[in-house]
Amino acid sequence: MKLVLVAACALLDVDGRVLIAQRPEGKQLAGLWEFPGGKVEPGERPEETLIRELHEELGITVAEPCLAPLTFASHAYESFHLLMPLYVCRRWEGTPMSREGQALKWVMPNRLRDYPMPPADEPLIPHLTALM
Ligand code: C5P
């Protein structure tokens, strides 16, 4: 089966809230909430992917040492296997803004269950509540 590598990042603010983004209409899994990130392009390391994607999607600048690996999601979708490292980041430059029309929300990790997520993302939630 095809293997897809996606890097995701939990941005945590000073109150311990995490930023989630809603997948826009027209995309697979539209309407579901996810941690910002995206596909790891050939030749990229996941950290490089996140620096690129967080800038493109949210307009923020992240320094690589501020990206701390937390865990991995591994999920078999019908047509591909998704492997998704999740990083945590508490420091960045700029204010996250929606640059691609996606809705954004800051939520406490113990409220993430109120926001439907793709099946690959759901097992990540306990790793974030453990940080509270
Ligand atoms: O974001 P993008 O559409 O490039 O991601 C590729 C695929 O990986 C999605 O179609 C979705 O099935 C899966 N995905 C996911 N959880 C995410 C991001 C992507 O399950 N947070």
From TrEMBL:
One GO term of the biological process aspect: DNA repair
Catalytic activity from the UniProt record: 8-oxo-dGTP + H2O = 8-oxo-dGMP + diphosphate + H(+); 8-oxo-GTP + H2O = 8-oxo-GMP + diphosphate + H(+)
Keyword Transmembrane helix: no
Catalytic activity, EC: 3.6.1.55
Gene Ontology MF annotations: 8-oxo-7,8-dihydrodeoxyguanosine triphosphate pyrophosphatase activity; 8-oxo-7,8-dihydroguanosine triphosphate pyrophosphatase activity; 8-oxo-dGDP phosphatase activity; 8-oxo-GDP phosphatase activity; metal ion binding
Matching SUPFAM superfamilies: Nudix
Cofactor(s) recorded in Swiss-Prot or TrEMBL: Mg(2+)
InterPro entries the record matches: Mutator_MutT, MutT-like, MutY_C, Nudix_hydrolase, NUDIX_hydrolase-like_dom_sf, NUDIX_hydrolase_CS, NUDIX_hydrolase_dom
Domain (Nudix hydrolase): residue spans on this chain: 2-132
Domain of life per record: Bacteria
Binding site for Mg(2+): G37, E57
Record keywords: DNA damage, DNA repair, DNA replication, Hydrolase, Magnesium, Metal-binding, Mutator protein
Binding site for 8-oxo-dGTP: R23, E34, F35, P36, G37
Keyword Magnesium: yes
Record NCBIfam families: mutt
Family that this chain belongs to: Belongs to the Nudix hydrolase family.
Protein name in UniProt: 8-oxo-dGTP diphosphatase
